[in-house]
Amino acid sequence: MALFRAGRVPQITVCSRRAAAAGVRPGMPVAEARAVLPQLDVREEDPQADVRALRRLAQWAERYSPLVGLADEPAPQSLLLDITGCAACFHGEDNLLRRAVR
Q: How much is the pTM?
């Protein structure tokens, strides 16, 4: 799967590991990416939906830390958790990580 930015020449902005392994790269025109990987699932970027999803993820992450937030940017792309002192509640950082991943 890959996301693209609409414009005069639509370009790939982000791609999955599988697409990258096939030769798809950010900045590549969508037509070229589809020539490299014909079955490529290409979707238009939706930054507002991305921020909404990141906010939902932040709410979910509050079960692991009371200090959770988004990067302070107009279009945040990262989630920040301060787990200082939280690991003991999960019997160690490794267990906290395993539980969050699961």
A: 0.66
